[in-house]
């Protein structure tokens, strides 16, 4: 069945880095645009970044210049490199196939 499984979350100090991964299975990964979303405590889920089938990327203003989305079609994996993390980046991070298929999420906490 179609499945997305995120990993790589954790606790990091402000200014630190994390790399999230999303392993896809059950569909032709390379044929779909993919995205990352996040939901902070008490907040609505929000768009973070996206990557097209051709590798074009887009970012939310709050993360542009700090986060990098990428994909490895040979490994059926989506990535999110997060640098210069801030406390306001604390959230559950989800990968998604076109806003229809969702993973279970991975918690990122930025705190000293």
Give the key terms:
single chain, 112 residues, mainly beta, 7-stranded mixed β-sheet, 4-stranded antiparallel β-sheet, 11 strands
Tell me the structural class.
mainly beta
Count of alpha/pi helices:
0
User: What is the helix fraction of residues, given as a range?
Assistant: under 10%
Q: Could you name the ranges where pLDDT drops below 50 across 5 or more consecutive residues?
A: none
Rounded radius of gyration (Å): 13 Å
- Main sheet summary: 7 strands, mixed
Strand-and-helix sequence, N→C? EEEEEEEEEEE
Q: What is the global morphology?
A: globular
Q: Strand percentage, roughly? A: over 45%
How far from one another are the termini? Answer: 40 Å
How many strand units? 11
Whole-number average pLDDT? 97
Describe the model.
This protein has 112 residues and is mostly beta strands. Helix content is 0%, strand content 51%. The protein has no helices and eleven strands. The chain has strands spanning 3-7, 10-12, 18-25, 34-39, 46-51, 57-59, 67-72, 77-82, 91-97, 101-102, 106-110. The chain is globular, with a radius of gyration of 13 Å. The model has no long low-confidence stretch (mean pLDDT 97).
Can I get a quick summary?
The chain has 112 residues and is mainly β. 0% of the residues lie in helices and 51% in strands.
SSE map:
Blueprint: E1 3-7, E2 10-12, E3 18-25, E4 34-39, E5 46-51, E6 57-59, E7 67-72, E8 77-82, E9 91-97, E10 101-102, E11 106-110
Parallel strand pairs: 2-11
Antiparallel strand pairs: 1-3, 3-8, 4-5, 4-9, 5-6, 7-8, 9-10, 9-11
